[in-house]
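Hey, sorry to bother you again with one of my protein questions. I've been staring at a protein lately and its backbone has me curious. I owe you a coffee for this, so here goes:
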Amino acid sequence: VFAAGTTGKKAIGLCADDPAFQIEGQTVYGTDDVYYTGASQGGIFGATLMGISTDIERAALNVPGVSYPLMQNRSTNFDDFELIYSAWYEDRIDREFYWPVMGHLWDQVDPITYVPHLLADPLPGTPEKKILYHVGLNDAQVCNLSSEVAARTMGIPLMEPSVKEVWGLQAAPSGAYDGSVMQIWDCGADPVPLGNEPPPSNCAHGWVRGRASCADATDAFFHPTGQVENFCDGDCGPDEPSP
C-alpha cells in the first residue's frame, strides 16, 4: 500500500523503479493498490486530485473544505492576507465583492469544481471514488461551512453518533460498510462566530489527525475491500485518545 502524496502514476511508475525505494532490487511498497491521504491543503486539493485521477479510487481527506471564496475570509490564516488586500481595497464591502469575483480565476483547480464528480457522474476516464471526509468541529482554519457544502455536494452520509448534525446529510449505515462518509471530531473548541469573520485559533484543525480513532478508520479503509468503520467510543468527542 502506498499513500500517494501527489499522483498515483509516480508511485506505481517512476518511484517504484527508483533504487531509492528498493531493497535488494525489490520495491519496498506494493504498487497494485494506490491510495491518497492529505490534511489541510492536502485535504482540500485532495478532492481536486481525486476528481481527475485515473489511478486512485480511495482517499482519506482530513480537515478539508471547498470553494476558496467561501473559506478564505472565514479562516484565521487569512488575517495577514487581509492586511495586504486592504491596502488596495480599503472598504470592507469592496473586498467582500472582489474576493468571490477573483475566485473564478481558480475554478479549474478549486475542489468545488470536482466534488460533484467523485461519487457520481465521474469525469471521462476516471472511476467512481470512495472518500473518508474527516472534519474538525469548529475548525478555525477550514470552516465547517465549506466542509458541509462539500459533503452535501458529494452526497455522502454522516457517521453517527455525531458531535454535530449536518443539514442535508443522511445517517451512514450502521456497522462497517463499503462506501464513503463524513465524520466529525470535537476537540472542545468554542463555537466559531456567525458570518464571515475569522474565529480565534483553536485546537480543531490539527486535532483530528492526531486521534487514534482517525488513524484506525483510515487504516481499515485503505484496502481493496476496505470498509467505513467508526472507531470512536460513541461520538468523536474530546476524550478520544491519541495513538
About this structure: Residues 33 and 223 are 8 Å apart (CA to CA). The chain has a mean pLDDT of 90. DSSP finds nine helices and seven strands in the chain. The first helix runs from residue 8 to 12.
